[in-house]
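Pilot study result, target chain (681 residues):
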Amino acid sequence: MSPGEVAWRVREQALRKAWSRRQVRPGQLDALPPLSSPPGGTRGFTSVLPPDSASGVPEQARAAIIVAADRLLDGEWEMLGVTRTDMKRPDWFYDPVTGRRSSPEAYAFRIDQRSEDQVGNIKQVWEVNRLQHLTLLAAAWYLTGREEYARRVDSQLRSWWRENPFLSGVYWTSGIELGVRLINWAWIRRLLNDWPGATDLFERNDLALRQIRWHQQYLAAFESRCSSANNHVIAEAAGQLAASCAFPWFGESTQWRVRSAALLERELGHNTFPSGINRELASDYHSFVAELGCFAAVEAHAAGAPLSPATWQLLCAMTDDMAALVDDRLRPPRQGDSDEGRVVLLDPPEHNRWPTLLGIGGALFGRLGWWPLVPPDAASMLVAAMAGAHWAVPGRPAQRPYRFADAGLTVLRTDAGDSPEIWCRCDGGPHGFLSIAAHAHADALSVEVRHDGVDVLADPGTYCYHGEPEWRKYFQSTISHNTLEVDGQWQSTRSGAFLWLRHAQGREISVIDDGNVAVWSAEHDGYQALSPPVTHRRSVRLDRVARVLEIVDQVDSGDYDIRLAFHLGPSVAAVLADSDARLTWPGGGARLSLPAELRWTLHHGETDPILGWYSPGLGVRVPARTLVGQGSSLPGVPLRTCLQFAESHWYRGTEVAGRAVSWGKPGTNSPIGPGAQSEAT
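Predicted structure:
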């Protein structure tokens, strides 16, 4: 931590202590004097949707919103792998995972938000208090005019505002939460604009006015900086900008708008590589930051205070990158941490947010010819209505990019239309962003391979942030990724759930693509602290004609114990015989020829030690097969792995998943024989 950051953190702690005098406890609200009227004596909401915007929402999207909204009216809602049944009158302080309830009276800055004893599972608690379910209910009212949707929004907003006054409770401990809430409040007010009770809920409601102002006063005073200036500062700036544009009702509103716009533009630049890839190198946070930026930019545009062309160009690059990275099923990479963060919920929530964001990107910037097709939904239609027209951004790629050199991110894939698609993400870039690299994993040179959208060699995901430290460590570890572990060490040194002390730096050596064959090669320095130091190099070769993927690993020195791991997706079954693995999944199959220099074992859903798991989303884990090869490092000796898919020309004569295949060596008909090790149970 730099001297400047130390000084800033000392100052912030002093400010937090001083602000304890400003805390408002729930029982003190009625004693507060009413807010004074703004200059001119009136408050109004002018940032409305154009007339008839609802007519642009497709019928299928409309029907899905109504189903989700009716489920909410019945009190049921799923968040982060947990179904809540108390959503008719939520207890804002209750965690359904641990059963704990945090104190609504506690001064926010005396709460340890990472302590399960104090607050329960903070991600579960924070998620419902982003109030995005109320934005969805407001969207349902906007599309149907059904009074029960608006009344539920009214009652729960009033409940939240009353039970969470300034600096009381856990919802004032993190600026990112305040920023997301402000953006959703702006959209709730917009969607309810024609409801007769809208002004009484917002403009004529002293408590609403206080909450909107309190949130902005907090964000103006407590800004994430230095090693914390990642997606958190983007959310803080985006929320402040959206609120100061949509609710310009306070004496400070102009100052807040100007300052937050400048902060957002600056930090978007800091957080993003020139290619448009987010520097945290966590796929989920790339989409989260892009969504924050787009919603804030649209809000500023609607208020007549547009962001700079350079910022619009950066946001366009981020969405073009998303279009380039998804597989043919519109699934993004699974690199780094993921907490399924979303900003505004105008459609029912999905694990995969990227199709909605591609729809929004298409609405703002226009689809390019190589973009995948995405079905229109409420979000893309309503954002398009707010924006009014596409932004003409020069210099967009004429063909789908596959390499983002500044981020060390390359996707090898078969040609469009060559079905089933083979898709392979290769990681040869930095460890993460800023000194703490909060959302990085120890995954240098890892690969992720899909066949027709099915995870074959899978990135296991994240599973949890808080409360289960051993699981958090596993999903961040080197052995949990498709890469090489040397001497039992992680490539990067971890010092906490969101803190890395030493960062492995990857470096792409070359990427060559002649049309039929694409070859990627890279190395990383994560084992240089060993004596003698070790450099791990890897190459990945995709033969599009033969439909074969080859991975070659090599170390340059030393005599160390090594482990090479390949994690299979949850739908992939495996039979292992020596160094040959037969993989099958519904509708497909492959043969994985593993380096014979290592001793291979198959693992599945083990807990001592943890091995063989896949997390489809935060809060959820399922058993999956993992192949681990152990042995001694052989400097200069290549370890070759070959993945041959069932439609490869090597396969003949054996029936697997309804296809004629052979599990023999290339050029032979010899199947794997007796003695095979089936999947562990």
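One observation from the pilot: The two ends are 46 Å apart (CA to CA). A full batch analysis is planned for the follow-on phase.
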